Structures are given as structure tokens and as C-alpha cells.
Amino acid sequence: MPLGVIAVAGAGATGPALPAPLPPNTAQQVANAIGQVNAGNMFGAPGPIIPNVFNWRVDRQNAPGGQVNVSVQRNGVGAPSTIASVFVPTALNLAPGPNAAVNLARTRELERTVRRGLELSLASHAAGAAPGAFVITRFIVNGAYSA
Description:
By secondary structure, the protein is α+β, with helices and mostly antiparallel strands. It has one domain. Helices cover 22% and strands 32% of the residues. The protein contains two helices and nine strands, in the order ββαββββαβββ. A six-stranded mixed β-sheet has the order 1-9-6-5-4-3. Strands 2-8-7 form a three-stranded antiparallel β-sheet, covered by helices on one side. The longest helix has 24 residues. The chain is globular.
């Protein structure tokens, strides 16, 4: 099965999100930040990987063991500032290999999949159970590389 994304199930399936009203052009601005996520910057220690795109940043956050939480957050606001989140298994981290074409294909597949998960998470932004609270659905990358 090629790489894909599914909604996280059980504990941690949703997370607190930036409250509405969202800034004008949020979807377009966040899409620009998501477009800069690549296989080279999504793995590593927690912290910002893309510090500022239209006042949005992409961070590596704490995640369940064996995963990286790639999150898009609003700069300059207090918590909650997250607008999208996807968990990426660290086993998908690509090490340089002998076959550059396969490595490139896998890199592109991973990037497309993570970006899609972030887009779906952004689209899930909705009012939560508590008054004034908003949540997003978290997604996780699953499957295996096609090549």
C-alpha cells in the first residue's frame, strides 16, 4: 500500500486549535507554509523548521514515540496556535541510498503525503465542545513507499 494519511484514532485524535475568527486568506497563507515542508526538514529535534510564511510557522512538535508531529502554527499568538498537524513515522526518514532515482521518488511521495495530511487537518478546523474552543483533527502517515 503506498503512503497515505488517515485520521488519528483514539486519544490524541483531535487537538486544540487556533480560535476563530481566522485571519483573512488563512487557507492560502497556510498553503504557502505547507508547500515549504520537505523531507529534509521534517525530521530532527523539536522546534521551528519554517519560521515565518505570512506570519505562520511550521514546527516539529512532541509526538508519540517513533513519530514526528509536523504542525502549522500562527506566529505571535498564545496557545493554542495550531491550525494543522500530521504525525510522520520516523521510520520513513530517508537516508541517502545507492539509487538516486528511487530516493527522489520516495522523497517526493513523502512530501506529497505529509502536505496532504496538513491540508486535511487544516480543513478539519471546527468549533470544539467548550464555548469558544476550536479543534483540529490530527492525521498520521501510513503505508509504505511505492518504490
